Amino acid sequence: MTPRIVGVLLAAGAGRRYGKPKVLVDGWLDIAVRALRDGGCADIVLVLGAAEVTAPPGVSTVTARDWREGLSASVRTGLAQAGRMGADFAVLHVIDTPDVGAAVVARILDRALASRVGLARACFGHWPGVLAAASRDTGAGAYLRSRADVENVDCSDLASGRDVDELA
Known about the structure:
The chain is of the alpha/beta class. The protein has helices spanning 28-39, 71-84, 102-114, 141-146; strands at 5-10, 43-48, 59-63, 89-94, 120-123, 151-154.
């Protein structure tokens, strides 16, 4: 039986350091949706909050009402929606890593599906300080780092994974 894989695109933030919600950056939404879809996600849910946008065709939306609490609110909202959609696996992806494409998603999914516990995390040759445990704005990173059984999958040959937080 083929597992149902739902891509969860986290795009609820206000992008304070960037100057606007990153879901409004021209092209990033399409890039992220394409990465999830072409990487193996049968369904995609877009988590919104600070800004409302029209989702691309075939993408459902959900609003993180408590988005001001930080990334964790988006993760909770997105995973809850994936559960309601009957997901066996969920791929969490953030809107502000525009160089992450389908090859990264596919590599992570392959490793997660082959893993004993079904958890995999992309690594890009660095561990930025923003992924350190923090209050209120901590996503899945702290949980995944705390698990000895998570598969860390090097994807530095495919993308930088750089989180774009400021206008260039």
